[in-house]
Amino acid sequence: MNYEIVNLDKKIVVGVGAYTSNDDPNMGKIIGGLWQQFFQTGICSTIQNRVNHYTIGLYSDYTENKYHVLAGVEVSELSNQNLVSRIIPEGTYAKFTIHGHMETAVQKAWEEIWNMGLNRTFTGDFEEYLNEDYEHADINIYVAIEQ
């Protein structure tokens, strides 16, 4: 799977979050539930100081067997109370460009990424959903790597 190396500035992301792991049999339900909560309860439309119209799925706070998942959007400043916030650190990222079904294309991409042997930093990896077309989504996946 092809990717390009990019350098990104720090990003602030707010939304809803939870901890899970790749070994958790409920991982799909947990992540899917975050996206449902984010959109179906109207949280997405209440977020102030949005930088753009993209949504972000952020994976951070990695430990040996779990990580934090946040479904949210990038903001210019933290002013959204009662929402979870995380920082995507400035750094070097492997950027993968994905097009296809929103769930299956991302799942397939991550399966390949996990097996690529990238020199990952595990400081914050994220999916950036560029449109809302569920069947024909345009998605960038950014994986934090050593420079």
What this model shows, in words?
With 147 residues, this protein is an alpha+beta fold. 21% of the residues lie in helices and 39% in strands. It is built from three helices and eight strands. It has helices spanning 27-40, 43-46, 102-114; strands at 4-8, 11-20, 55-60, 67-75, 84-88, 91-100, 125-129, 137-144. It has an eight-stranded antiparallel beta sheet. Strand 3 (55-60) and strand 4 form a beta hairpin. The longest helix is centred in the N-terminal third of the chain and has 14 residues, at 27-40. The protein is globular, with a radius of gyration of 14 Å. It starts with a strand and ends with a strand. The model has no long low-confidence stretch (mean pLDDT 94).
Helix-strand sequence: EEHHEEEEHEE
- Mean pLDDT value: 94
What does the main sheet amount to?
8 strands, antiparallel
Would you identify the regions where 5 or more consecutive residues have pLDDT less than 50?
none
Can you count the helices? 3
Overall geometry comes to: globular
β-strand number: 8
As a whole number of angstroms, the C-alpha radius of gyration is 14 Å
Taking the alpha carbons of the first and last residues, their distance comes to: 19 Å
Share of residues in helices: 10-25%
Q: Helix- and strand-based class?
A: alpha+beta
Report strand %: 35-45%
